[in-house]
Amino acid sequence: MALVLHAGNKNKNAYKTLIAAEYTGVQVELAPNFEMGVSNKTSEFLKMNPIGKVPVLETPDGTVFESNAIARYVTRLKADNPLYGSSIIDYAHVEQWIDFASLEIDANLISWFKPRMGRVVYLPPAEEAAIAALKRALDALNSHLASNTYLVGHSVTLADIVMTCNLLLGFNHLMTKAFTSEFPHVERYFWTMVNQPNFKKIIGEAKQAESVMPVQSAKKPSQPKESAKPKPKDEPKKEAKKEVQKEPAKPAEEEEEAPKPKPKNPLDLLPPSKMILDEWKRLYSNTKTNFREVAIKGFWEMYDPEGYSLWFCDYKYNDENTVSFVTLNKVGGFLQRMDLARKYAFGKMLVIGSGPPFKVKGLWLFRGTEIPKFVLDECYDMELYDWRKVDISDEAQKERVSQMIEDAEPFEGEPLLDAKCFK
Ligand SMILES: N[C@@H](CCC(=O)N[C@@H](CS)C(=O)NCC(=O)O)C(=O)O
User: Fold this and answer.
1) Given ligand 1 and candidates 255, 256, 257, which is best to mutate, with the most ligand atoms within 8 Å of its CB?
2) Disulfide engineering: 313 pairs with which of 192, 216, 338, 362, CB 3.0-4.6 Å?
3) How many angstroms separate the CA atoms of 114 and 130, rounded?
4) What is the rounded radius of gyration, in angstroms, for the C-alpha atoms of the chain?
5) Which DSSP string corresponds to 295-329?
6) Model pTM score
7) What are the chain's domains?
8) Per residue in 197-252, pLDDT tens?
9) How open is the CA angle 304-306-310, to the nearest 5 degrees?
């Protein structure tokens, strides 16, 4: 008789058990007509898991909650199951990687994911911390996988099942190719795992997010901006910070269920442009010598003022930039949050000065003749800069654009501490 697993059919925590069951040869079926937010609120369900979370497994000997415990239970139904390795030390390593997958990978992915889902308040510094902790874990995982196909031993174990299901949430919604390419062995591992027949049967075709999931219900509390018009320079900073607070938390119902499909970005509906952003990015990246004659010249030949616009930005609070690495981190965080605009933007951010306070100035190329609304809505850093549209009929402004793309030094008479590129 099949064991019954209570969960929706797109729940990555339930996948752990379903995949382990495939490897183990145990029959597990999803509870029929399970409806997230309804079925897990009934008094019968709360008897099985008092906090009403899924998955829960019903067995002839009682119920089990917590997805890792359920997957372990199913695995142990077969004596000497290779999913647990073949020695006591293998067993310890399987447990080690299950904990690592849960506490270092999943926990940080969830901290990144939940605010974007609108489940808890979205706070950029908290997101930055979650991403930094996640990268630290992925870096360690990447090093391990540089010389190992599997986490433990020479075949799939329960550790690989738990790790892959946890990574799946990240690959599906948050970790774009630009993000994961820093961890090539993790990429190779993930795609190898999800293409194993027993994984594929449960997960289906895994897909990588093309952009980081936007913050849901990210509408600012009041006064939506009507255009890309910059705010007056003397606007108090507190106002900008306040807007970081998105809507208050909604009751969590479907937590890790797949979000609704995104509506098409209006920028994809603009008339085609002769300028192909990726071509420019390639030219920029591939030009190693004669930058002026090749890349800059190429840029102006490609540039299409009908389909794109150029913007200068100036950080409003340069007097606070007293510590070099803090300033660099701030700019790095901005570029990370601009990930959502990767398909529609190119940017150059200069950190200027031989000593503190450092000035931060930038140049951005955006698809469309205005700064895209979704960028203004979603990326809170935009508020921290004054924005000025480049007038390309003004040769001095054009020259400034060229210098910024080129990282020309000195820039406006000062050395550069760093130049960061968004491409
Ligand atoms: N640590 C738990 C997490 C379970 C969990 O967060 N489940 C989500 C769906 S994937 C849920 O039931 N959320 C509903 C709620 O929070 O009320 C496990 O691994 O089973």
Assistant:
1) 255
2) 362
3) 11
4) 25
5) IIHHHHHH--TTTEEEEEEEETTGGG--SHHHHHH
6) 0.58
7) 3-76 (3.40.30.10), 266-422 (3.30.70.1010)
8) 999 999 999 999 999 999 986 433 334 344 444 444 444 444 333 333 333 333 33
9) 65
Neighbouring CB atoms inside 10 A of 235's CB total 13
- Letter for the amino acid at 67? S
CB 306 within 8 A of CB 369: yes
Among residues 216, 218, 201, 195, the alpha carbon closest in space to that of 258 is found at 216
Pocket-forming residues, ligand 1, beta carbon under 6 Å: 11, 13, 52-55, 66-67, 252, 255-256
Q: Choose the residue to mutate in 35, 53, 119 for probing ligand 1, maximizing ligand atoms within 8 Å of C-beta.
A: 53
Listed in sequence order, the residues at least 6 apart from 186 whose beta carbon sits closer than 8 Å to its beta carbon are 138, 141, 142, 145, 167, 180
Residue 227, Cβ neighbours under 10 Å: how many? 9
* Alpha carbon distances (Å) from 317 to 85, 186, 227, 231, 244: 56, 39, 22, 14, 17
Contact 172, 206 (CB under 8 A): yes
Residue of the nearest CA to atom 11 in ligand 1?
53
CA–CA distance, 70 with 56 (Å, rounded to integer): 8
What's the CA gap between 239 and 250, in Å, rounded?
24
The tens digit of pLDDT for each residue in 20-29 reads: 999 999 999 9
Ligand 1: distance of its center to the CA of 255 in Å?
7
CA gap 44, 330 in Å, rounded = 50
